[in-house]
């Protein structure tokens, strides 16, 4: 649609005519094309307004933009119609009035040409606005649909929650009661540690594993030296909805008993 508006704008700017019948013959097709484009834009506005697109964030701006395209296109048609209104036609006067001589005819043309030129310039300007609006509309709808697809895909990607170890599960549970991330200096080195309100001990390795899977976040707006508040994310909440992991059997417990070889034992 934008290319159609651009093509019509070029035709309006390049139109060459002689006032009178020639102007009517050359400008009339431009007016009909502008009306067709207005009708097309209006049909698309109606279709868009009745579509599921209206449920997508940002759709209102697109509808308003398309309505402005309808308005600009319609105004372009009105300007072309005004150019035809300003056109000096060659019909005869009422009976009893003298026929126009060449001087009168020339004067009428000289008076009409600036008016017609102004209307044609206005029409070209409105068509330019219609083309620009159509370009922005196509881009905006594409962006809205892309954002909506990403938004719909995000929950799907987050539904898979990795299995937790018991220390990780217990750490998340403690974080719900309040916890902070601190950094202190020991022997001149910065050491990051986790402090929970219930006194549970959580290793920094456990915290980092949870943070890697986006199950916890720390408030980075606060200095580590003052303590950054740890928050359990929705991903972490879903992980806690699972049953608490069982304690894994140690290698020593699962290994078969060794039979000691007794050498040198006399019967």
Description of the structure:
The protein has 267 residues and is an alpha+beta fold. The chain is built from eight helices and four strands, in the order αααααββαββαα. The chain has a four-stranded antiparallel β-sheet. β1 and β2 (189-196) form a beta hairpin. The longest helix is centred in the middle third of the chain and has 57 residues, at 102-158. Residues 248-267 have low confidence and may be disordered.
Would you kindly provide a brief summary of this structure?
By secondary structure, the protein is of the alpha+beta class. Helices cover 59% and strands 9% of the residues.
Radius of gyration: 39 Å
Read across the widest sheet, the strand sequence of neighbours is 2-1-4-3
Strands, total number: 4
Helix content: 55-70%
Shape: rod-shaped
Could you give a short account of the major beta sheet? 4 strands, antiparallel
- How many helices? The count is 8
Average of the residue pLDDT scores: 84
**Oligomer status:** single chain
Return the structural class: alpha+beta
Q: Quote the beta fraction.
A: 5-15%
SSE pattern, N- to C-terminal: HHHHHEEHEEHH
Low-confidence stretches: 248-267
Key phrases:
single chain, 267 residues, disordered C terminus, 8 helices, rod-shaped
Please give the structural blueprint:
Elements: H1 2-14, H2 21-49, H3 59-86, H4 102-158, H5 166-176, E1 179-186, E2 189-196, H6 204-212, E3 216-218, E4 228-232, H7 234-240, H8 251-254
Antiparallel strand pairs: 1-2, 1-4, 3-4
